[in-house]
Amino acid sequence: MNRRNNFDFLRLAAALMVVHGHGWVLSGGVGPGLWGVPFARVGLDVFFSISGYLVTGSWDRTPRLAGFLAKRARRIFPGLIACVVATILIVGPLATRLQLGVYFASPETWSYLQNIALHLKLTLPGTFEASPEAGAVNGSLWSLLPEFACYLTVPLLAACFARGRIASRVATLGVLAALIGGAGLYLFEFHRGPSIQGYGVDLKYALVEVPFFFVGGALALLEPRVAGLWRADFCLAFFTLNYAITAWLGSWNIPFEWFTLPYMAICFGRMSLPLVRDAGRFGDLSYGMYLYAFPIQQLMLTLWPGHPYPVLACVAMTAGVAWLSWHLIERPALHGLRGGRAGAALAPAQ
User: Fold this and answer.
1) Each residue's pLDDT tens digit, 5-37
2) Taking the CA atoms of the chain, what radius of gyration do you get in angstroms?
3) Which is nearest to 326 in space by CA: 308, 346, 311?
4) Partners of 342 in the beta sheet?
5) What is the C-alpha to C-alpha distance for residues 140 and 146, in angstroms, rounded to an integer?
6) pLDDT digits 0-9 by tens, 65-112
């Protein structure tokens, strides 16, 4: 795969879709989508798809468990820790209706630190109570638990099969995608009563994202073994069919998207288009934007009530914070220092 590819652009585009989609919801509206799916969810689906492809490829190139887990942890946790702490110390005091002494003395304030361990805690005391997403400080954090759980399945499934048995691994990923996604779809369509929670996360949302990761992983395994796997005409056909199937089946189009969207996303990501392939020249801002956009949007809508949703202001502020996160926290954590210099640029799978 060409190392100067479109994946940086694709990650950034997915992050912007999440920002845009959440902005509509937090301002009390219903935003546009794609194939009948809200933009925020499409962006998340893209993240899971390319993550499955890149992380599986990373394992197959370097199948060493300790190194693999260290890479994954360095990618997730340093930026997350900084975001959670900054949210408690900056966003909370600016947004809370409580006196600061009461805010900092509340156990609820410090229980928010559980997000660092991927245990979802949505609220800080006295904050965002009038929001359409009442009390939610950072609704984006829920996806980090299923994402990290998916990371752990990569070496686990590889250990179940001899290294050369790619067909068995691909078939297993397909079966697991169907079973896990089917369970999530069942909970969406037929389960009545309270939502089923796991470590603070509503399981139905987590389960329907897992297939995107697994299908991305299956495509990574097939890539060196299937000539002509990536075809623009297939992408165009899938893009068009998704609209038709949405019209026919409504929300039951989701199983079709589990297989078509990862193919489209990865096919585009592997390309090397002028200008597009240079989207990461200022750093990989996608994770920082994903982490910080929701609390920034909530804060701006709270501090300036009654005004139209400030789309450009939210994007600009989020991009600035994401730039700082990348250069001050994420990049040093990922690269380390080698002989006093930052390490070489990471491969896309890192």
Assistant:
1) 999 999 999 999 999 999 888 888 777 788 878
2) 20
3) 346
4) 337
5) 12
6) 999 999 999 999 999 999 999 999 999 999 999 999 999 999 999 999
3 state DSSP class of 346: coil
- Asked whether the whole model's pTM tops 0.70, one would answer yes
d(CA 44, CA 286) in angstroms, rounded, equals 11
CA angle 232, 265, 17 (to 5 degrees): 130
Quote the CA–CA distance of 274 and 182 in Å, as a whole number.
40
User: In whole angstroms, what is the distance from residue 182 CA to residue 318 CA?
Assistant: 35
Mean pLDDT taken over the chain: 89
Residue carrying structure tokens 């914070």? 321
In eight-state DSSP terms, residue 35 is: T
Distance of CA 122 to the CA centre of its chain: 17
Calculate what percentage of the chain has a pLDDT beyond 70.
93
Residue partners of 127: CB distance under 8 A and separation at least 6: 91, 92, 95, 96, 97, 135, 137, 298, 302
342 and 335 Cβ atoms separated by less than 8 Å: yes
SS3 287: helix
For 88, the token pair is: 């408690």
- How far, in Å, are 8, 137, 144, 145, 215 from residue 149 at the CA level? 23, 23, 8, 6, 15
Rounded CA separation 68/305 (Å): 46
User: Looking at the DSSP assignment, which residues form a beta bridge with residue 34?
Assistant: 37
Three-state secondary structure along 257-311? HHHHHHHHHHHHHHCCCCCHHHCCCCCCCHHHHHHHHHHHHHHHHHHCCCCCCCH
